[in-house]
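Hey, quick one: can you model this chain's 3D structure?
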Amino acid sequence: MATFVQTNVGLYWGGYSLASTFNAIGLNLSNSLQDDTVYGDTFQSNAGGLSSVSLEGEGYWDSTNDSILESSISVGAAETVVTVTPVDQAAGSPAIFSKITTSEYNPFANGTVGEMLAFRVSGEGRGEKAVSGEIFVTPGTTRTTSGTSLPNQLGAVTSTQGIYSALHVLSASGTLDVVIKSDSDISFGSPDTRITHTQFTAIGAEMLSQLGTNADTWWRADFTISGSFDFIVSLAII
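Sure thing. Here's the predicted structure for all 238 residues.
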């Protein structure tokens, strides 16, 4: 994909779409290098250590999003599944997702008279890598019937990889079941279920994975709806 100007970045934070109040989002992937330089080396040497992911964002304060972000930093708050869509929210567009624990929320980052009231938020990864994949089910539509995403040839999974799925349920009435299936060709004549998400009856999010070898190269998301739901599903092999 060519370079582009950011105009339609998506931010899915648990069961909420928050991009409309953010104007900057940063994802940082890092590796804690460990010095393993020994006698005889002529250059400093490092071994790869533990990987980490962090998120930084800022935007304009409003009361609705304030309560969402504040609750994520309360004592004992669980990690949040966060998905960033850098280009847009169309099927096949990039999606980067991980589990984040909010480490800092500053609701009054800018208190200058006459200027917009701004906020800042940051978080750290919670034992899960950040994975880069593609959107399979697009958000922004209230769905009332069951269906499937279009098949997508993500490729096979090697013994050191896994298939990862991120589901964000943004509005909910009834029950929603989402499963990730694979097959050896686009026809999906004999698909196998690889990931089964928890049944959702309310807004929320879940990130699941299946590790290990899988020779199938075609993937899709199947969903069964009783009621009405708006949700986004992204998949990645890494």
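One thing worth noting: The two ends are 19 Å apart (CA to CA).
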